[in-house]
């Protein structure tokens, strides 16, 4: 059997004594495009951050390709939620993407021509090469998100974690991003995307993690999108459920 891309066992995370993640266990095989779905405050961002060792866990075990997160951190690209990024930070598009090459650079080596060419290639893939000299703060939401995807691509990661990549993003950027994520999966990469509702879950993902502090359900999209299961996660938000046609 193939080695699991991600294996999480009995994960607990809390902030100041309030549990945000309660006993979550998941295992994801390589090549999947997985959506993390759940209401506001369900712990979706917390789960991603714990999966990156960015925040401490109370309990539990996280393995990536059978190793600790620390051992394989370079192999994981992370695109944070838009409001977690300081868009006023003075950095050009090209330099932001070049940052993605840093984990693979030897210590004390600056990016050179080779890395710049690769960064431009990644920008081209997301349709942003003409904007390489712009400041990131001068881009639209969709353009910013594409640049951060380019940075993730530049990292040559095996796993891609994206937190709400479609919020504040125009339809054409959303389509570009989804197409690239699907391509990455076809190449055997594993992609985890936080998405706050069920809209397009069917089109975008092949597996879903339905979360509301606890793991409500995990599996193939059609197994998870079932009225009783969704109800459990979105307790009583019936109007929303009707809209989704569940
Ligand atoms: P989601 O991404 O699903 O909306 P979060 O993971 O951001 O949810 O948050 C889960 C819970 O943890 C929420 O109740 C939130 O208020 C709380 N929380 C998140 N980050 C912090 C923090 N840095 N300090 C204290 N509480 C936090
Ligand atoms: Mg969040």
TrEMBL record:
InterPro entries: AAA+_ATPase (IPR003593), ABC_transporter-like_ATP-bd (IPR003439), ABC_transporter-like_CS (IPR017871), Metal_Ion_Import_ABC (IPR050153), P-loop_NTPase (IPR027417). Residues 6-238 form the ABC transporter domain. GO terms for molecular function: ATP binding. The keyword Ion transport does not apply. It holds the Pfam family ABC_tran. Keywords: ATP-binding, Nucleotide-binding, Transport. Belongs to the ABC transporter superfamily. This is Zinc ABC transporter ATP-binding protein. It comes from Thalassobacillus devorans.
């Amino acid at each position: 059997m193939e080695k699991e891309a991600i294996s999480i066992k009995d994960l607990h995370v809390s902030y100041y004594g309030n549990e945000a993640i309660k006993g979550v266990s998941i295992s994801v095989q390589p090549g999947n495009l997985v959506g993390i779905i759940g209401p506001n405050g369900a712990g979706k961002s917390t789960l991603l951050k714990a999966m990156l060792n960015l925040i401490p866990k109370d309990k539990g075990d996280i393995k990536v390709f059978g190793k600790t997160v620390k051992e394989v951190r370079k192999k994981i690209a992370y695109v944070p939620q838009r409001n977690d990024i300081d868009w006023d930070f003075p950095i050009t598009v090209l330099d932001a993407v070049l940052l993605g090459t840093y984990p693979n650079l030897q210590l004390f080596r600056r990016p050179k021509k080779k890395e710049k060419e690769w960064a431009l290639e990644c920008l081209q893939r997301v349709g942003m090469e003409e904007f390489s000299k712009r400041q990131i703060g001068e881009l639209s939401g969709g353009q910013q998100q594409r640049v951060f995807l380019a940075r993730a691509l530049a990292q040559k990661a095996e796993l891609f974690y994206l937190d709400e990549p479609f919020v504040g993003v125009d339809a054409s950027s959303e389509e570009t991003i989804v197409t690239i994520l699907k391509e990455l999966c076809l190449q055997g990469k594993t992609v985890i995307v936080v998405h706050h509702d069920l809209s397009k879950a069917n089109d975008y993902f092949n597996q879903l993690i339905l979360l509301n502090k606890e793991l409500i359900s995990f599996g193939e999209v059609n197994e998870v999108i079932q009225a009783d299961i969704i109800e459990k996660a979105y307790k009583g938000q019936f109007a929303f459920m009707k809209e989704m046609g569940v």
